[in-house]
Design goal:
This protein is α/β, with parallel strands linked by helices. The chain folds into two domains: about 5-25 and about 285-390, Aspartate Aminotransferase, domain 1 (Alpha-Beta Complex), CATH 3.90.1150; about 35-280, Type I PLP-dependent aspartate aminotransferase-like (Major domain) (Aspartate Aminotransferase, domain 2), CATH 3.40.640.10. Helix content is about 40%, strand content about 15%. The protein contains 14 helices and 15 strands. The chain has helices at about 5, 35-45, 55-75, 90-100, 120, 140-145, 170-180, 200, 225-230, 265-280, 285-305, 330-340, 350-355, 375-390; strands at about 20, 85, 105-110, 125-130, 150-155, 180-185, 205-210, 220-225, 240-245, 250, 310, 320-325, 340, 345, 360-365. A seven-stranded mixed β-sheet has the order 2-8-7-6-5-3-4, with helices on both faces. It has a four-stranded antiparallel β-sheet with strand order 11-12-15-14, covered by helices on one side. Strand 5, helix 7 and strand 6 form a beta-alpha-beta unit. Helix 2 (about 35-45) runs antiparallel to helix 10, helix 3 packs across helix 10 and helix 12 (about 330-340) packs across helix 14 (about 375-390). The relative contact order is 0.17. The structure holds 4'-deoxy-4'-aminopyridoxal-5'-phosphate. 4'-deoxy-4'-aminopyridoxal-5'-phosphate binds near residues 90 and 113. This is Cysteine desulfurase. Its cofactor is pyridoxal 5'-phosphate. It is an enzyme of class 2 (transferase). GO terms for molecular function: cysteine desulfurase activity; pyridoxal phosphate binding.
Length: about 400
């Protein structure tokens, strides 16, 4: 069976109209009509504020907002009282880096996105860096040797946004817990392509962004164990996060509201849930199988060329990073754009990983549930044309 036969949902996505070959889903995914419709209704006929209205429209919107929290939590196997809406994965990681009561040592890895490096630095953590295996996975044997009882936190990407390598989260959790540390998983690239069950993975925090799971920008989620969230002070101050305010003393609401100061991203939350529903209806197992087939085909097509270097393991999830000999990824990306093919070229917010790979940038093709063989064929045509231009 061809890749195209297993799953093709292009017509659900107005952003793909006109035959555009979108290979940048790891940056952000296109939106299905169901998400656009949910957002439009929430901004239109259903619009009202949440949590304070005495009128029916607001009460209904509050129900929809809290139902969205439940849907998003269940999407990753969690419970609604453990699900904090944030602006995205970046804010979720910043929240933990800032609010975790003890800023001790944190173990990161070479392949982390800047959003899982800089927040720890900004908040005074002592950062240790776990190396990678030769094929680009986080080396958990090395992590085991590095971890000490001084480590408060281990924070690792579930799927690398550059290499597509997949972390063995359960083992990382076991290693972290053995020394008394907590495990925060950056699930940005995993949530759109792997079935996530935070209970089975045994992690302590899980962060991801709606816009990568076919939902809107401006919202994401931090899942955390109830007892851990409960022990943390607020992130920001304002409305909605309080219990009682006086000028002498303010007491705070329990989680998740404690971490959600101000009027929340109401319409985005409703659309986020619509995206989770859309993805769940297709099934992450199918999406994963589909993307795995595309990665295998892409790696075979590019790997057969003598002018392309591939990065990352064979079984990478939905993402293929590569370099064309003698062609800067930006030039490749520009020529591909003329062919109607969108890839990402650059450091992918992972400069330490680029340094490790010894390159300033890579070209990256990343897939979504709507990607198919025509995208791969267009990519190869564009690479051929680039080769002709660069001689
Ligand atoms: N971590 C990873 C692995 C990512 O790919 C990204 C987005 N490129 C982020 C974190 C940050 O996500 P956001 O910008 O949506 O907060």
């Amino acid at each position: 069976m061809s890749v195209t036969d297993t799953l093709t949902r292009r017509t659900d996505f107005p952003g793909l109209a006109g035959g555009w070959h979108y290979l940048d889903s790891a940056a952000t995914a296109q939106k299905p009509q169901a998400v656009i419709d949910a957002m439009s209704a929430a901004l239109g006929k259903d619009y009202a504020t949440v949590h304070r209205g005495v009128y029916a429209r607001s009460a209904n919107m509050t129900l929809a907002f809290e139902a969205a929290r439940r849907t998003v939590a269940q999407f990753i196997g969690g419970r609604e009282e453990e699900l904090v809406f944030t602006r995205g994965a970046t804010e979720a990681i910043n929240l933990i880096a800032r609010c975790w009561p003890k800023k001790g040592r944190v173990l990161l890895s070479v392949l982390e996105h800047h959003s899982n490096i800089v927040p720890w630095q900004l908040n005074g953590w002592q950062v240790d860096v776990c190396p990678l295996t030769a094929d680009g996975r986080i080396d958990l044997d090395a992590a085991e040797a590095m971890l000490t009882p001084e480590h408060e936190m281990v924070a690792l990407a579930h799927v690398s946004n550059v290499l597509g390598s997949v972390l063995d989260v359960s083992r990382a959790a076991e290693l972290a817990h053995r020394v008394g540390a907590k495990l925060l998983v950056d699930g940005c690239q995993a949530a759109p392509r792997l079935k996530v069950d935070v209970a089975a993975l045994d992690c302590d925090f899980y962060a991801f962004s709606a816009h990568k799971v076919y939902g809107p920008t401006g919202i994401g989620a931090l899942w955390g164990r109830a007892d851990l969230l409960d022990a943390m002070p607020p992130y920001q101050g304002g409305g909605a996060m309080i219990d009682k305010v006086t000028f002498e003393r303010t007491t705070f609401a329990p989680p998740p509201q404690r971490f959600e100061a101000g009027t929340p991203a109401i319409t985005e939350a409703v659309a986020f849930a619509a995206a989770c529903d859309y993805v769940s209806a297709i099934g992450l197992d199918r999406i994963h199988a589909h993307e795995t087939a595309l990665v295998a085909q892409c790696r075979a097509l590019l790997g057969a060329r003598n002018d392309v270097t591939l990065y990352g393991p064979e079984d990478s999830a939905g993402i293929v990073s590569f370099m064309m000999d003698g062609v800067h990824p930006h030039d490749l990306g520009t020529i591909l754009d003329e062919e109607g093919v969108a890839i990402r070229a650059g450091h992918h917010c992972a400069q330490p990983l680029m340094e490790h790979l010894g390159v300033p940038a890579t070209a990256r093709a990343s897939f979504g549930l709507y990607s198919d063989e025509t995208d791969l064929a267009a990519l190869v045509r564009g690479i051929e044309r680039t080769k002709r231009i660069f001689g």
